[in-house]
Amino acid sequence: MEVIEEALRQGRAILSEHESKEVLKAYGIPVTREVEVIDPEGLREAVERIGFPLVIKACGPELSHKTESGLVRVDIRDMDEALSAYHQLHGAMAGQSGGTILVQEMIKGQRELVVGLTRDPQFGPCVMFGLGGIFTEVLRDISFRVAPIEHRDAMEMMQEIRARKILEGVRGMPPADLDKLAQILIRVGSIGVEQEAIKEIDINPVILKGSEPVAVDALVVLNQ
Q1: Tell me: the pLDDT tens digits for 142-157?
Q2: Helix axis angle, 178-194 relative to 151-160, nearest 10°?
Q3: SS3 annotation, 13-43
Q4: DSSP, res 16
Q5: CA torsion sign, 26 to 216 to 155 to 188?
């Protein structure tokens, strides 16, 4: 895959968020609509293409913890806010090599999940599913399967987490589309099997927009 080969040629072990999502998109995994920009004119064009509300982020292979570093602006609702966010983030990235600004549609949803891949020395690529967002590391409510996985495996993974009831129709929210979630898990497994250069994938969060899962943030780590 070209995005992976280019990163390896550059001696990089980490793909940017945008590059990581390009890998996911190539396997049919739903991701946010977004545009990388490098100047205010590109920002204006991206806003016209995507529309408000927006999320604007710093983006680059060295920026894996953007929220904790204050490099994300959410719920941008007009061009003045967008330009202000752009200039703030652009200034904050001074000295970062290969950094850009990512203009992204804002996905609204109360339920956050995590999907991942890790390459175990003994078992090879393993798919992970669980409760996402800020609770991933705190609660560790996750399940694993060795890739490749089938639809039945994916459905079992979703039923194994303690918070599985959030996938049902709760508090007026529609039930999650389990088949689409299962396809994400299956396709992440396929990436692990087919792309041996990939060491890890972290898709966190996958937000349920109504019933539809969307990958909002992603990180791909390569074998050096």
Answers
A1: 999 999 999 999 999 9
A2: 110
A3: CECCHHHHHHHHHHCCCCECCEEEECCHHHH
A4: -
A5: positive
